[in-house]
């Protein structure tokens, strides 16, 4: 049921993007509208990540990763499980997710690459710890549609950061995806 809702929401979001774009290339004055439409997808992905953490369902989180990572990294679910265990205790509260645009590359035919980031701040646990959870995703990657989706996850232990501890954050990230964008 939840997956069906996600699929319907994704289709509606894509339809909205196409409707807002029309048949023309992106122009400077409507880039914000275009990016905002993808912000909604990033917010939905952040909600799925929080649901997955709270229900200890790494499959739910792995499902929103891009096809490239799912195909080339069979260890993804194991890495997500380890990533989730970094949080000490049960989550009792958190701020609503926020998004911001990362990279936006345009060409003659419009947007060629769009990176969206989402953060969930003030994630508090019943052990008194405070975290920030983040994710990055390619929303558009022309000629590399298998890279569209979540690409990396981050948990920052804000208490450990204040104490300048070396292990103040943990990531799920695979460098080979960056070689597609930046070359070797």
From TrEMBL:
<protein>
    <submittedName>
        <fullName>DUF5104 domain-containing protein</fullName>
    </submittedName>
</protein>
